[in-house]
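fwd from M.: "can u put these together and see what the complex looks like"

so here's what she sent:
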Amino acid sequence: MGKRVLVIEDEPNIIEALSFILSRDGWTVHTHSDGVNANERIRATPPDLVILDVMLPGKSGFDILRDLRADPEMQALPVLMLTARGQTRDRELAEKLGVNRFITKPFSNAEVIENVRALVTT
Amino acid sequence: MVSFNLLVAVSLAYVAFLFIIAFVAERQAERGRGKWLRSSLVYTLSLSIYCTAWTFYGAVGYAARSGLEFITIYLGPTIVMIGWWWVLRKLVRIGRSQRITSIADLISSRFGKSTALGVIVTLIAVVAATPYIALQLQSVTLSTAVFANASGQNWGAPELASAALWVAVGLTLFTVIFGTRNLDANERHNGIVMAIAVEAVVKLCALVAVGVFVVWGVAGGVGPTLDLIDASKIAEWSPPGGRWFGLIFLSGAAFLCLPRMFQVLVVENDDESRLSTASWAFPLYLMVMSLFVVPIAVVGLDLLPDGSNPDLFVLTVPLAEGRSGLAILSFLGGFSSATSMVIVATIALSTMVSNHIVVPIWLSSRAGGAMMSGDVRYAVLLARRLSIGGVLLLGYVYYRLSGGGEALAAIGLISFTGVVQILPSMIGGLYWRGATRWGAAAGLITGFAIWAWSLFLPSFGAGEVIPQIVLEQGPFGLAWLRPQALFGFAGLDPVIHAVLWSMLLNSAAFVIGSVLTFPLPLERLQGAQFVDVFEHSTGTRSWTHGGAEAEDLLVMAQRILGSTEAQDIFQREARLQGKEGYLPEVTPKFVEDLERELAGSVGAATAHAMVGQLVQGASVSVEDLIAVADETAQIMEYSSRLEAKSAEQERTARQLQEANEKLTALSIQKDAFLGQISHELRTPMTSIRSFSDILREGGASAEMQARHAGIIHDEAVRLTRLLDDLLDLNVLENGQGTLSRQEGHLRDVIDRAIAASVVGESAIKIQRKRAEEAIALDTDLDRLTQVFINLIANAQKYCTAAEPVLRIVVRKAGGRMAVDFIDNGAGIGKEHQEMIFEKFSRLSDHRKAGGAGLGLAICREIMIRLGGSISYLPGQGGAAFRVILP
Amino acid sequence: MATRGKKLVFLERASYRQRRLQDVARLLPVLAAVLFALPLIWKLVGNDGRGTSDVMIFLFVIWSGLIAVAAIISRRLKLEPESDSGKEER
């Protein structure tokens, strides 16, 4: 049983791709595709790592991250953020909110695995 | 010989009989029975109050003095009656539709309910009628004196005066009892009308009876009578031409203007068809009344000693022949003539005096205090009763002052000339919309002054009121102002002289005054209602066509409030009522609200009048209202120029602010769009890159590989489509590309669009009426289909209802065909409605849309290119788009 | 409002009859005025033979005739509703 990763993303094909490469790397992958209940989902069964998309229906990735960091128990939870907008403003905002890593779409599979591993081993 | 006591007894019995007739008629009418009370016959007979004692006794005297000229007094009304289609019909219709209570009310009402005009007309009428009432009192007392003297009593002035007083008191009593019983809005008096109809029969019978007796009983047949005429002093036919014409005109005009005639012709008339019968029946009555006048005159001249009063021939000829029964009948005829005239004239005058003078004064004297309605009613009734007494008292006083001499005989024509001063204002008001209250007042006052100066005051006798020297040399020696030779026209008959100058200058003042002044809005409204009364008051106007009314109201409201504001009010109300579009049901509440809105702009009274006219369907057209509204708007504009200036600055500032807001919103949207476009492009690319990595790394099963390849393919297609959209929009915006026109049917286009967009189990339910869609099109059908697909797809994506339904409705909007797409979802908030067609817009960043927010922008560009349009239709209970077809 | 401004060119027979009756009703008072003035012309042209009795007979005959015509018109003429839309043909 490997480490648990929660992928919060609404695009089905990207979920499938991430699930594929992460499970191949030995992770147990859980997915969640809507922004509104994301925080509850994390708190209910806290994973070892969260992969968080920025543009989500209902609640943006930034808001989820802000709420997450507001919870003392969750301040240390590693979060990897994905964005398709690729603007520097997004990256700055994410870092201010306490993101651990930040990847711009489209990404290479190697890039994802590298970042994920870096986050959990450190 | 008839005993005087018998005469008194018969007279009292006759009066009692009249009381009973009036009482019964009143009771019948109260119980709703007695339709015969309102028959054409009764109406015609009631008109006979035109024939007063002056005509009953006086006509014979007139004929004995001046031959056939007396007949002009009957010819004038004959022409007016058979010409009823011109004036009387209109007068009666206006009287009914405007609830006119008197001729003063008619003039006042026509000129914007002017109080001052009501007072002027009332004063003219009272001044002109008072001598006439005195004349009636005189005729009754003189005829009574004939009997008294015949039976041995020798009546002198004291007896005459006391008889006149008794007659006046009796008439007051009768008039008060039957004339002020009820205070209906329509002012109809069944009892009195019935009584005067009976009196009309009595006086006709009496005169005919005397005439028949004279022709066959005294002269010995028609032939001998004619011979007698030819042998008499009036055998020569030598009428002064001016008088002949002038008197026909004068009597015809007076027939229309006399307050008592207006009372029976218009006020007491509740059915226009009565007029149609009276148009020939009343001339017939007049003809019969005048048939025996000349024979009686010549027989009287022949029979009675020189110096006998020819005014009493009707009475004295039968007496001289020893026919006391006939004489009594004749007396009753004269009595009837006098009393019926006095009663109706008094009612008409007292209505005017109380409505236009007493009540306004009373009301203003206690202004401010809250009044009970019963209070007013009592006051009006009291005013009416006092006025009746007052008018008769005036008549009596005049009779006493004038001494009851020969001077009174001429008063008939003088009185006619006085009331005729109302004619120009009345006729002008009926046929000329440009007539104003200033014109009317100028005309009335000018005419009245000339009448008083040139005819009325001199009639008291030289030196009585106007000094002899003024009569001969004019005031202050101004010869051209000599009363009976104005502007040097000496030698003319005094009556004709007065009629000529008063009518000329009256009309001139009326026209000039009207042309130079500007009417009030209410005046214009009333003017339109009077002049075009037949256009608007067909009597039975139904209010079933609700749509048209709402539209009429909207048209009017737009003129006053401005179109946007008016449309907003109507649309809001329509929405409240659950209706689409701009035309709500005309409910009382809505009318009330609207009236309040309008009152803010034009004042409560005008708003009330305008709305009331439209809603109650009385008698004014929308065009008229618009004319008033336009004018009001002009006035408002004029008077508020300064205000408008600052308002304009404010408006400009607001517009700038709005533009700024829009720009800001757009630039935010533009930023968002760039983020969006980036997102939309990168998302499929992410999948493609990731899965192609996976494929390249190998190691997966063939099945898995096929699946991944499929995803890559789909995402590539999605990417392509997005790029296509962007390019498409770019092409449309820059006006590039060509349209391929085709002919086809709207139904097929909708079919195709539905087939292309409604797929899958979660598909939206489409409601449409295929029959309405049978419309031929000649445009780029593919592009149109694209628009429809977009709209249907939008509804599918955004409609939030549990069971989404999309209605496709074809209708006519603004003269063009429109297709409405209406779903049952939450709709689009007002703040977004302006933005949705902007190409960078997207209402929310939720992913479900699966597009970049270009769909509606593309739709708009397409419709512009095709020559149609697309717009958001607010207030439809869901999101609704209207496509106006090219 | 929809029918406003629409001009009727041809009327059915009955309506046409009504219109002409209205014309006669309008002309009748003019005719009456002219006829009542005729005796003045006799005097102008100096017909000395005619006295009061002749003029009286003439006037009463004319009067009766006018009354008869007016009676016929008022019988035939309908007041409502055609009379009120009578503007269209004028």
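replying to her w this: The helical segments of chain A are 12-24, 38-44, 61-70, 88-97, 109-121.
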